[in-house]
């Protein structure tokens, strides 16, 4: 599994496509391109018969280049690394840093692909992908790209729970309203903390805990871990908000019953 470190020191785990998925996706794309070429040649056949041999050969060459080079480059650039075969298998071509591919990457891949896929019947691409941990072919190595599993089952984040040692403090603490931006940053940090570098995780957790402490009274017990404090803070705020909303809904239902009651009742 590949990993990319973002600017916030968050390590993103990216799943490269398997060798079998890449080969199947490439086979679909090659079949589509060959079918497109055959269809174009069939439509151009009457026109080629009327041209002189040099012009017919030039038109034929332009058609082949367009199908095997220009079309893949245009499709991959406009769809940000997808194609018909990759779309069918849930794959996508991305840069080595996880970003979307651009025209330069698509052009290099398609140009090298003519040699390693079509002129060598796929043998060069096959051998290169077999011995590469990300199943890269030569075009990917030169372009700095690889195939990524784009459709991965979404994992639901783990629910937030107040740590046991902080439950007595959380039940009595006066929690002020956190600014929306700070609350979002704390929640994002707690969700991404397990994937962060230890030093960055500790520094960011301490900074967020210091900023959030200004909205709580009394402060958490001494020696409380910053992440435990943030976890208790968000969990208790959520529980109190749910309790308040449940009480408001109950009062609304009672009022609605009174309003809809007949006068003589």
TrEMBL record:
GO terms for cellular component: membrane. The keyword Membrane applies. InterPro entries: RDD. Residues 17-144 form the RDD domain. It is found in: Membrane. The keyword Transcription does not apply. The chain crosses the membrane at residues 20-43, 55-75, 106-131. It is a multi-pass membrane protein. Keywords: Membrane, Transmembrane, Transmembrane helix. It comes from the Bacteria. Coiled coil: none annotated. This is RDD family protein. It comes from Arthrobacter saudimassiliensis. The lineage of its organism: Bacteria, Bacillati, Actinomycetota, Actinomycetes, Micrococcales.
């Amino acid at each position: 599994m590949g990993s990319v470190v973002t600017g916030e020191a968050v390590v993103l785990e990216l799943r490269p496509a398997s060798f079998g998925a890449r080969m199947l996706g490439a086979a679909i794309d090659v079949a589509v391109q060959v079918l497109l070429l055959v269809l174009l040649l069939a439509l151009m056949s009457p026109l080629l018969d009327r041209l002189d041999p040099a012009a017919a050969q030039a038109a034929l060459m332009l058609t082949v280049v367009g199908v095997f080079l220009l079309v893949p480059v245009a499709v991959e650039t406009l769809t940000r690394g997808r194609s018909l075969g990759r779309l069918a298998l849930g794959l996508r071509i991305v840069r080595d840093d996880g970003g979307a591919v651009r025209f330069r990457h698509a052009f290099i891949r398609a140009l090298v692909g003519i040699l390693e896929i079509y002129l060598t019947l796929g043998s060069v691409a096959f051998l290169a992908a077999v011995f590469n941990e990300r199943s890269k072919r030569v075009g990917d190595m030169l372009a700095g790209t690889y195939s990524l599993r784009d459709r991965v089952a979404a994992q639901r984040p783990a629910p937030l729970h107040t740590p046991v040692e902080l439950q007595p403090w959380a039940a009595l603490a006066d929690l002020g309203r956190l600014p929306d931006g700070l609350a979002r940053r704390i929640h994002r940090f707690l969700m991404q903390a397990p994937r962060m570098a230890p030093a960055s995780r500790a520094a960011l957790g301490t900074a967020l805990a210091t900023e959030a402490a200004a909205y709580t009274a009394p402060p958490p017990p001494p020696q409380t871990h910053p992440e435990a404090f943030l976890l208790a803070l968000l969990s208790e705020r959520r529980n109190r908000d749910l309790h308040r909303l449940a009480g408001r809904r109950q009062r609304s239902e009672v009022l609605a019953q009174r309003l809809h009651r007949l006068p003589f009742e």
